């Protein structure tokens, strides 16, 4: 079965600083990887996804992620943090065991942006 | 609206009561998923439908949990004889088709509290 690990349950950055949220995956097949963001009392929203077309994936709100097979990583970055980026971020892998395409999520990283 | 909707948003039940949680997916979406999300954790898969067929129910925690999607659109997650450990947020998601690279669109969730 596929799985993801998110290192760091809480990350704090200053406004304007680089954002780096880490995700490592485990998969026996070429993975499909996703980053979702969750604002308080809202549903999860897709930031970006990796589907093997390109290793550097650009998403919404200035976020991007790079798929590195050698490191089994799919870290999320943003060059300059904004206060509105404060939220919880989830990395997920598409898990095709059992006949479906369910998502297996990491435990999440809470991003705090400080002035 | 065009998004996934869930009702009720909040549900309080006495232990032993039966509850029914509703999910309205995006019109035309073939795949529908139920997840549960504990506080501070990522969503965990419960069950998956493709049209009206329940293809994977491996994540349902006990036989008190039952899901249906009789006409291939609206879905209901039913929990019989609720227990305190059932208290969590239940998320519904839908996607256009069953491919592993398709984005899943999430609803806002139903927060269930069992007293």
Architecture overview:
The complex is a heterodimer of chains A (115) and B (115). Chain A has 115 residues and is mainly beta. Chain A is built from no helices and twelve strands. Chain A has strands spanning 3-5, 10-14, 19-21, 24-26, 33-38, 44-50, 56-58, 64-68, 73-78, 87-95, 102-105, 109-114. In chain A, strands 2, 5, 6, 10, 11 and 12 form a six-stranded mixed beta sheet that branches. Chain A has a four-stranded antiparallel beta sheet with strand order 3-9-8-7, with no helix packed on it. Chain A has a two-stranded antiparallel sheet with strand order 1-4. In chain A, strand 5 (33-38) and strand 6 (44-50) form a beta hairpin. Chain A is globular, with a radius of gyration of 14 Å. Chain B is built from no helices and eleven strands. Chain B is mainly beta and 115 residues long. In chain B, strands 2, 4, 5, 6, 9, 10 and 11 form a seven-stranded mixed beta sheet that branches. Chain B has a four-stranded antiparallel beta sheet with strand order 1-3-8-7, with no helix packed on it. In chain B, 0% of the residues lie in helices and 48% in strands. The model of chain B has no long low-confidence stretch (mean pLDDT 95). Chains A and B meet through strand 6, strand 10 and strand 11 of A and strand 4, strand 5, strand 9 and strand 10 of B.
Please supply descriptive tags for the structure shown above:
heterodimer; A: mainly beta; six-stranded mixed sheet; four-stranded antiparallel sheet; B: mainly beta; seven-stranded mixed sheet; 0% helix; globular
Oligomer: heterodimer
Please state the CA-atom Rg of chain B, rounded to the nearest Å: 13 Å
Distance between the termini of chain A: 41 Å
User: What helical percentage do the residues of chain B reach?
Assistant: under 10%
Mean pLDDT reading of chain B: 95
- Mean of all residue-level pLDDT scores of chain A: 92
Q: Which outline of chain A best applies?
A: globular
Secondary-structure-derived class of chain B: mainly beta
- Outline the low-pLDDT stretches of chain A: none
Largest sheet of chain B: 7 strands, mixed
Please give the number of β-strands of chain A. 12
């Amino acid at each position: 079965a596929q799985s993801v690990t998110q290192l760091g349950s809480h990350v704090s950055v200053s406004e304007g600083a680089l954002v780096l949220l880490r995700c490592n995956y485990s998969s026996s097949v070429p993975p499909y990887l996703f980053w979702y963001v969750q604002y308080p009392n809202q549903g999860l929203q897709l930031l970006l996804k990796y589907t093997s077309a390109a290793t550097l994936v650009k998403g919404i709100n200035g976020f991007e992620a790079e798929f590195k097979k050698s490191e089994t990583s799919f870290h999320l970055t943003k060059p300059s943090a904004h206060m509105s980026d404060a939220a919880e971020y989830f990395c997920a892998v598409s898990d095709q065991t059992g006949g479906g395409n369910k998502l297996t999520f990491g435990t999440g990283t809470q991003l705090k942006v400080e002035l | 609206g065009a998004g996934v909707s869930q009702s009720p948003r909040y549900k309080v039940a006495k232990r032993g009561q039966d509850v029914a949680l509703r999910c309205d997916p995006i019109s035309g979406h073939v795949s529908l998923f139920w997840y549960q999300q504990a506080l501070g954790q990522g969503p965990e898969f419960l069950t998956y439908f493709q049209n009206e067929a329940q293809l994977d129910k491996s994540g349902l925690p006990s036989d008190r949990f039952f899901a249906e999607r009789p006409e291939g659109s609206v879905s209901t997650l039913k929990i019989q004889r609720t227990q305190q450990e059932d208290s969590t947020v239940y998320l519904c998601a839908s996607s256009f088709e069953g491919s592993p690279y398709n984005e899943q669109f999430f609803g806002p969730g139903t927060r269930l509290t069992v007293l």
